Amino acid sequence: MINTSCYLARRERQFLGYVTAEVRTPPPFFQPVRECHITEIVVRKDAHRQGIAVELLETIEDWGRAKDCEYLDLYVDRENTAAKTLYEEQGYAVERYTMKKRLEGETSDGSNRGTIR
Question: How far is 95 from 84, CA to CA, in rounded Å?
Answer without folding.
Answer: 13
